[in-house]
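Annex B. Sample input.
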Amino acid sequence: MLLYRKFHPVISIFVVVLVMASLLALTNSFACTKLEFQQDQQTLEILIGVFPEAGYYIYDEEAEIYNVYDMSKNQTGYAFYGSSRGFISSIYVLVGLEDKETIRGIVVISQNESYNRWNMLVKYSFFDQFIGLKIEDCYPSWS
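Annex B, continued. Sample output.
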């Protein structure tokens, strides 16, 4: 009985700490899963324009790259935003990559080109010419 009185507070504290640690780990697990899928729907829809199988993404702020995954948590590619001067104004795009260097597709985010010039770009599928190319192959030889 004396032994019980001596260790009862220690055992009680140990059990309480164990239960609290378990609850904290469980809460963290749910929070991480929820944050993973709680994303900007507009960005996800743009990514789906290049990656139809996309279920979610993780944005790497340091590299400014989107890591794109399907719902089975398989990585399907990468994406980044870019812009360049058009005929009249800048054209903003999202570039999707199969791997870290091969272009899978390009989605135009915004542009202010004249109606006629823009229709020429669309008519001749200007952006499609880059699909399957390595990024380094897209730079002009004179740059």
